[in-house]
Write a structure and sequence with these properties.
By secondary structure, the protein is mainly β. The protein folds into 2 domains: about 90 residues, no CATH class; about 30 residues. Helix content is about 5%, strand content about 45%. The protein has a 4-stranded antiparallel β-sheet with strand order 1-2-3-4, covered by helices on one side. It starts with a strand and ends in a 14-residue tail after the last strand.
Length: about 120
Amino acid sequence: MFFIFGMNGGHESLRFRQTLVCPCCGRYGALEAYKEFNSFSLFFIPMFSFNKRYFVRTACCGCVSEIDKELGKKIEKGQATNIDVSQLRFQTGYGFTPYKRCAGCGYATADDFAFCPKCGRKFE
């Protein structure tokens, strides 16, 4: 008898969108929720998934934060409508460049600047 099986990872959007002012870059944007998982397949047909992790990502700058599994399951079922942003710990990985916002003109720029490139004011 001949069996073909394997494991692979994937991600899936949870169709959740919450508008907000981004805590990372200060721009108007939205939170989008998704889950990452591993799956076991037999004859290229996914049989079951495991190791599920839930995340939210800002649409404006791509900043990512992992969320609690219970909250992720509620979002997946459509039961949760709001996420408390103060509870999230955003990571600066995943291709995200951290931003500084100038107190004088509001210009957002990368962290490696000591002065605002638009108005010349020193970042605090």
